[in-house]
Sequence to fold (298 residues):
Amino acid sequence: MITHLLTRIDLCMHSFSKGQKRIAHYIEEHYDKAAFMTASKLGETVGVSESTVVRFATELGYEGYPKLQKAMQEMIRNKLTSVQRIEVTSTRIGNDNVLDSVLNQDIDKIRRTIEETSHEDFNRAVDEICKAKRIYIFGVRSTAAIASFLAYYFELIFDNVRIVNTTSSASAYEHIFRISENDVMIGISFPRYSSMAVEAMDFARFRGAHAIAITDSMASPLVQSADSILIARSDMASIVDSLVAPLSLINALIVATVLKKKDEVSENFRQLELVWNRNGVYTNHDSESESVPENDDK
Fold:
């Protein structure tokens, strides 16, 4: 089955109507913009009707325009520069209702993550993490923040966590060269994918470790080396990568490990509370115990 969009267009070009050829040429030259247009907007841009755009998608073998749009988006995921991202976002959102638009897009990504993430892979990942001798967490650039978030909580739960957040190949291998079949590697990467994250996952798999990919789709290069695949939908919002759904997935991963190791974790946190209280780590503000000046009516 032919899956690449541009190949489909080339093979069908001779049978297209004049209007469909205009759509095809526009997509070939401007797929980075077309990928985020509605069928109506694409039709308006090239001078054809919305129904012509829908028929065009069907002619290419897609079930409807949303499938064609998804194919265009997958094609550009790893190719948009930061400047192109700004231009695309301007087309998608404009200057009005930015807050509502971005938040609703994030809600949609969480909903899609619920639908697409494998519960079997999630449960397997939790089991492997809980029994691992060492837990390696790899996340660089924009994913470094959520990798650090995961590592922070895992370090409170486990005593065997290693976080790798360097883009230097030599330094990364110095951090993970001891990885073995008794360990787990959690690789986190979203478009634009980190080549070092891919290499780290490949190395972990080569050494026999259980490799867990936290990424955005089955087309991600991290998937090829993963034993457990956790899909969390991500998308661009201007130059910013939306990591709301990935962070929510990581929250679920933390909660699941806590529940699986409930007794041990409870004891850990009892000890931590003593340390935190003794060192004044957190404020102990109690509004009911605040001293209130007495009202002197004399």
In short: Confidence is low (pLDDT under 50) at residues 287-292.
